[in-house]
């Protein structure tokens, strides 16, 4: 099929999932066209099966807010016509499903029918989408999609509770391409980060409030009081400066390394012993899955869809949101005993294989075919 994918091109789970999906679809012989305002960060190779079409929004002084949805829907119309696209897959409802719907309607005027799949990722529902300013438009564009998918059962239930949804929501979980990881690194370059006797604890996110960054620091503070350890913080975002300040206040700055954004997540996870994800809300927790496939156990909150990924007592532990004492206690239980750590590491990678791309990709392909036939 010829598939147009709309996503956010920056660091963030939904963009990563959309990009990895597009690459995998191209590897299966589909022709994939990414339509967004910048080349997606994980999209390195363009080729005869992968294309990138940039959406330009010209600055015009009359506009206080530049109309991205308008530019996106026009770009979609042009791309779909020029490349004879069969199907449109939009990731993250806001504003992509809305712009996609407009493109569909414009094309219908010309007798072109292109089905639209909308994948809900989390904050498009739980944080932004439910705001009264957006809710009617989000409800409308979800209901107007030909197929709606959500990345976890929890997000599906949440969406049904918040919005008046008339469409069936199919759960298609996030996935991992283990061929990207399994044999990539033999030398983890652990020595760059920590002494031999130190355990390495890692957190990766966009440093937004919802990630509860102070909890990450508090959990680590408790861990490093008991065992020699380093904390590696990966990502950029609004909470980063506060986090650096908190480390100063606690006197642990020399044990915490802030790396910024990275395209080499697997290199970092390769030398990590434990992953922390104490989020307030998380529709799935792709970062936890990326940790698990790299043999890193996860200490997390039990928010949202995380329990569908991190298995309590098997791949790590789950605690109530904000219960940093319990999270630190569980972290130490894993880190203090090398045999226990080894068992959790093995379990993590075995459990992550539930989400292997080869199991998830056919679910999307089946939905594509269903939508295409019904158009
Ligand atoms: O975690 C974020 O804030 C980024 C956000 C995104 O849209 O990129 O992530 C959401 O989508 C990911 C991919 O489906 C999920 O793994 C994350 O759990 C979800 N984040 C939240 O629900 C907070």
Strand order of the largest sheet: 3-2-1-4-5-6-7
Count of helical stretches: 13
Query: Span between N and C termini?
Result: 14 Å
CATH topology category name of the largest domain: Rossmann fold
The overall pLDDT, averaged over residues, is 94
Report the structural category: alpha/beta
SSE sequence, one letter per element: EHEEHEHEHHEHEEHEHEHEHEEHHH
How would you explain this protein's 3D organization?
With 375 residues, the protein is of the alpha/beta class. It folds into two domains: 192 residues, 3-Layer(aba) Sandwich (Rossmann fold), CATH 3.40.50.2000; 177 residues, Glycogen Phosphorylase B (Rossmann fold, 3-Layer(aba) Sandwich). Helices cover 41% and strands 17% of the residues. The protein is built from 13 helices and 13 strands. Helix 3 links the parallel strand 4 and strand 5. The longest helix is centred in the C-terminal third of the chain and has 17 residues. The chain starts with a strand and ends with a helix. Ligand GMT binds next to helix 1 and helix 4.
């Amino acid at each position: 099929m010829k598939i147009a994918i709309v996503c956010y091109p920056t660091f963030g789970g939904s963009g990563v999932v959309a990009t990895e999906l597009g690459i995998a679809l191209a590897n299966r012989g589909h022709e994939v066209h990414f339509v967004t305002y910048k080349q997606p960060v994980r999209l390195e190779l363009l080729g005869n099966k992968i294309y990138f079409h940039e959406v330009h929004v010209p600055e015009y002084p009359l506009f206080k807010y530049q109309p991205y949805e308008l530019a996106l829907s026009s770009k979609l119309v042009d791309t779909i016509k020029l490349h004879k696209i069969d199907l449109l897959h939009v990731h993250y409802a806001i504003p992509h499903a809305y712009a996609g719907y407009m493109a569909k309607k414009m094309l219908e005027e010309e007798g072109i029918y292109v089905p639209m799949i909308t994948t809900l990722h989390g904050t498009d529902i739980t944080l932004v989408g439910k705001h009264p300013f957006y809710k009617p438009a989000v409800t409308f564009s979800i209901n107007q999609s030909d197929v709606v998918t959500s990345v976890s059962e929890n997000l599906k239930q949440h969406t049904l509770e918040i919005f008046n949804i008339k469409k069936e929501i199919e759960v298609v979980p996030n996935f991992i391409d283990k061929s990207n990881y399994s044999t990539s690194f033999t030398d983890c370059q652990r020595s760059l980060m920590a002494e031999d006797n130190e355990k390495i604890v890692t957190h990766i996110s966009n440093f937004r409030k919802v990630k509860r960054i102070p909890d990450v620091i508090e959990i680590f503070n408790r861990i490093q009081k008991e065992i020699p350890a380093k904390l590696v913080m990966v990502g950029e975002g609004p909470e980063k400066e506060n986090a650096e300040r908190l480390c100063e206040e606690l006197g642990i700055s020399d044990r915490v390394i802030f790396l910024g954004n990275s395209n080499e997540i697997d290199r970092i996870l390769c030398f990590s012993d434990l992953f922390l994800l104490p989020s307030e809300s998380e529709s799935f927790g792709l970062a936890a899955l990326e940790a698990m496939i790299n043999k890193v156990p996860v200490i997390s909150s039990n928010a949202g869809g995380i329990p569908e990924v991190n298995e309590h007592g098997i791949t790590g532990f789950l605690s109530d949101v904000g219960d940093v004492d319990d999270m630190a206690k569980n972290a130490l239980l894993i880190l203090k005993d090398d045999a226990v750590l080894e068992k959790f590491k093995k379990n993590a990678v075995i459990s992550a294989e539930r989400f292997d791309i080869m199991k998830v990709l056919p679910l999307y392909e089946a939905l594509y075919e269903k939508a295409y036939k019904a158009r």
